[in-house]
Amino acid sequence: MKRIRQISVFVENRPGRLLEVVELLGKHDINIKALSLADSSDFGIVRLVVKGTDEAIKVLRDNGFTISETNIIACIIDDKPGALAKILRTLANNQINIEYMYGFASPIQGKAVMVFKFSELDKAEKILEENGVQTLTQEEIREI
């Protein structure tokens, strides 16, 4: 299975709190591969894909951050108009619910990487595979 481990860090919604997270990871030589920030009035959720997930979890917890770990799927898609819509149509046609998604830069010319959190991960993974959508492993993400 090509699942990626994502860390969600719960932080107070105040200036500098995101900085504390990324500086802490940098200080421990943990490279952030992808980051998404969602907020509410009181707190934020920093979603991270990092090189060194186990170490990042330990460092963050040891420094008082509340975290959770989630499995996600990262897909490589063509970096052209309509490519994302094609994948979303396939998922919708198969009744796959997307809880959230975000993208990050790809070093592969003409390609983009989209990260998906699905409510039914097994079903989504199967549908993507059956439809020829390339997904990345944890090791491949580390090398990007």
Automatic annotation (TrEMBL):
InterPro entries: ACT-like_dom_sf, ACT_dom, ACT_dom_pair. Residues 72-144 form the ACT domain. PANTHER family: ACETOLACTATE SYNTHASE, SMALL SUBUNIT. It comes from Hippea maritima (strain ATCC 700847 / DSM 10411 / MH2). PROSITE patterns: ACT. It comes from the Bacteria. This is Amino acid-binding ACT domain protein.
